[in-house]
Amino acid sequence: MDSHADHAVRRYFGIFAALLVLLVITVGAAYVHLGAANIVVALVIAVVKASLVAWVFMHLRSSTPIVILFALGGVFWLVILILLTAADFLAR
Amino acid sequence: MSVVSPAPPLRLKESYLSVSFTIRSWLLSTDHKRIGILYLLSITALFLFGGAAAVAMRVELMTPQADVVRAEVYNRMFTVHGVIMVWFFLIPSIPAVLGNFLIPLMIGARDLAFPKLNLASWYVFMAGAAFTLWAIVRGGVDTGWTFYTPYSSTYSNSYVMLTATGIFITGFSSIFTGLNFIVTIHTMRAPGLQWFRLPLFVWSLYATSLILVLATPVLAISLGLIALERLFGFGIYDPNKGGDPLLFQHLFWFYSHPAVYIMILPGMGVVSETIACFSRKAVFGYKVVAMSSLAIAVLGFLVWGHHMFVSGQSTYAGLVFSLLSFLVAIPSAIKTFNWTATLYKGQITFATPMLYALGFIGLFTIGGLTGLVLASLAVDVHVHDTYFVVAHFHYIMVGGMVMAYLGGIHFWWPKMTGRMYPEGWARFSAILVFVGFNLTFFPQFLLGYLGMPRRYHTYPAEFQVLNVMSTAGASILGVGYLFPLTYLLWSLRYGPRAESNPWNATGLEWQTPSPPPTYNFKETPVVTEGPYHYETGE
Ligand SMILES: [Cu+2]
Question: What are the two backbone dihedrals, phi and then psi, of residue B420, each rounded to the nearest 5 degrees?
C-alpha cells in the first residue's frame, strides 16, 4: 500500500511540474511574435493543461465510462457555445 | 408499478412530519421530503414578493400617464419582478419542491444520493435570496432581469453587482440540485425499475437536471464577466476596450433560453402524471414522450440566438437560429399531441389537478405557437420588445409552469401533508386562475401586436382599454392565487386525513403511507412493470 501511495504522490507532483513547464512555455510564447498563431499556441497549451487536470487531479483516468461520458458531454456543450457564437461573430 | 409487498399500515408518529417538531430538526434535516417543504415555504414567500411587484406595475398601467411611480421606480419594479420570479420562484419551483419530495419516492429510494448536498443547496439558495433582497432594499436594480450590456456593465447606477452576486450564488443551488437528481436517478432506482419503467415526471426532471448542470455555469460566467468589467475595467463587453456587447447576449441566452426549459419541462412531467391518473389510461406513446424531454433539453441549447434577431447579430446566424427554433417546437408538439391522445376514450374526471393539467395544455399551446411567431425572422422585427413577447412568455411561464406547479401541489398535497384539501374550493380557484390569467395576458398579445413596447410606465391613450382589461385580469388572478394559499393552510388542520392512495393512482409514491415515513418505504419495493398500468390494473 505504501509504495502505491508513494506512486500516486509522485504522479501528482509530476503533473504539477508539467503544468508549471507548460505555464513557462505559455509566457515565453507570448513574447515570440507569431501573428495569429499566438492565440492558437496559447489555446492549445491551455487545453493540454486542462486535460491533465481533469484526467489526473480530477480522477477521470480511474472513473467509470459513464462519468467520462458526462465529462465529454461538458466539453461538447462548450463546443456548442463557441461554435454558434462564432457563427454570428464570423459572419457579421 | 406494482409492489410485491403492500405497505403495512403506518402509525402516525412514524411519518416524516412527526419524527420531531423542533425547528432544529427542520433546519438540519437531510430528509429530502423536509427539504422539499423548506423550499416550498421559501419560494412561496418569494412568489408573493415578486407578485406584489407585478401588482404594483399593473396598477401603474391602468392609466396612460404616470400616476403611481416615476420611470426610475418602475424600472426597478419590473426588474425585481423578473429576477425574483425567474430565479427565486420558477427555476426552483417544481424541481426543488416536488422533485425533491417525489424523485426518491417515485424510484423507490430512501433519499437522494447526496442528502447533505441537498440541504446545502437550500442554504445556498437562501443565501442568494438574501443577497438579492438586500440589493432590493438598498435601492434595487434597473437593468431588467436580462442585465443587458453596456447598460449593466457601464451605465447603470443601481445595485447591479449585489443583485448579480445573489443570482450567482443561487446558481450553485441549481447545480447541486441538478447533480443530485442525475446521480440519484442513475444509481438509486429500485430493483426492476428499468429506465423505461420510470414515471414521466422522473424523465422530465432528469432532462431538467442536465440543463441545470450544463447551463447554469454559463450564467455565472456571464455575470462574473460583468463584474470584471464594472469593477476592474476589463474590456469584455465594452467595444471601446476591445470588447463585444453582443457577447453578453450570447452568453446570457446560452443559459437563459435553456432556463426556459428548466422552467417548463418539470411542468410537462406533472401534466403527464395527472393526465394519466385522471383519464385512467397509460400515457400515449410513453417512450416518445420520455425521449422528447431529452430532445427538448438538447435542442433547447441550440436556439438562443432567436433573442437577438434585431440586435445586430449576423443575418446568417439569425437564419440558423430561426430554423433551429422551429425544430425545438417539434418535441413540445409531440407531448401536446400525446397528452391529447391519452385523453381519447379515457375515463376522465375533472378533479382539481386535472383542471390545472387541461389548462396547461391549452395555455402552453398558445404560448408555444406564439413562440413560433417570434422565431420567424421578419415578424420578430415587428413584435420584438413589445407586449407580444411579454404575453408569449407569460403564457408559457404562468399559464404553463405555474398552472402545472399548482396542479402538482394539489395532486401530491395528500402525500406531502397527509391531508385532503377542499375539492370544491380548489376547483373554483383553478377556474378563477384560468379566467384571470387569460384576461391578464391575452390583451397583451393585442397590445404588443399594435406596437406597445414593454418596460414603459406610460403609453398612448388608445391602449388604455386593453391595459385596464389586463389589470382587471391580474386582480382576478391574484385572488385565484390567494385562495389555494388559504385553503391549503386550512387543510393542514381541518382537512380530512388522506389515505395512502386517494386518487387510486399508479406509481410507487402512492404505495407508501401519507405522509411517508422518514425512509419512505418499509421494504424496498420491487418493480415488475411500467408506470401507468391503469387499463389493466384497475
Ligand atoms: Cu428563447
Answer: -90, 145
Count of domains observed in chain B: 1
DSSP notation for B261-304: HHHHHHHHHHHHHHHHHHHTSPPTTHHHHHHHHHHHHHHGGG-G
- CB contact under 8 Å between B314 and A74, yes or no, is no
Residue B81's domain spans which residues? 3-537
Clarify whether residues A76 and A31 are in a common domain: no
- Helix, coil or strand: residue A45: helix
* Torsion angle, alpha carbons of A54, A58, A61, A65, to 10: -90
> How confident is the model at residue B444, as a pLDDT?
97
Residues 52-71 of A with CB under 8 A from B: 66
pTM of the model: 0.94
Residues A20 and A45 reside in one and the same domain: yes
Contact call for B247 and A85, based on CB within 8 A: yes
- Rounded Cα–Cα distance for residues B210 and A82 (Å): 19
Domain count, chain A: 2
Residue A83 domain boundaries = 63-92
Residues 6+ apart with CB under 8 A from B240: none
Residue B306: what pLDDT? Answer: 96
CATH number of the domain at B381, please: 1.20.210.10
A43/A78 same-domain check: no
Residues B390-408, mean pLDDT to the nearest whole number = 97
Q: Which of B254, B304, B314 sits opposite A91 (nearest CB)?
A: B314
Tens digits of per-residue pLDDT, B431-459?
999 999 999 999 999 999 999 999 999 99
pLDDT one-digit tens code per residue, B413-428: 999 999 999 999 999 9
Are A84 and B305 inside 8 Å of each other by CB? yes
Q: Give yes or no: residues A39 and A78 share one domain.
A: no
- Tell me: do A10 and A44 sit in the same domain: yes
Task: Answer whether B327 touches A (CB < 8 Å).
Answer: no
Shortest Cα–Cα distance, B316 to chain A (Å): 7
Q: Are residues A49 and A85 in the same domain?
A: no
Asked if the Cβ–Cβ distance from B214 to A66 is below 8 Å, we say no
Q: Do residue B218 and residue A81 have CB atoms under 8 angstroms apart?
A: yes
**Set of chain A residues whose Cβ sits within 8 Å of the Cβ of B250:** 81, 84-85, 88
Q: Work out the percent of chain B whose per-residue pLDDT is above 90.
A: 91
